[in-house]
Amino acid sequence: MGGQDLSDAIAMESEAAAGIDAAQAEQQSGRETLSLDLLRQAIEKERASLDLLEQSLEAVRLSFEQRRQALDQEAEILDQVMNESRKR
Length: 88
Prior knowledge:
By secondary structure, the protein is mainly α. The chain has helices at residues 3-28, 32-87. The protein is rod-shaped, with a radius of gyration of 25 Å.
């Protein structure tokens, strides 16, 4: 997960916006049934986009947490090395 999910989410968001524009055009032309279907599809794409963004954010959050843990371990090792070198 990551860059590709973000790209997919952005593409879905763009498709949803295009769907809303198309629905508005259809509604203005008097084809309300089609415009309602287009709006429903746009909403579904928007939700899918949000789901992908949420998954990407969770992956980033987990990555940050793992990096923090690694930094904590590195700091602990450095402290041990410094304490050992002071004893000598």
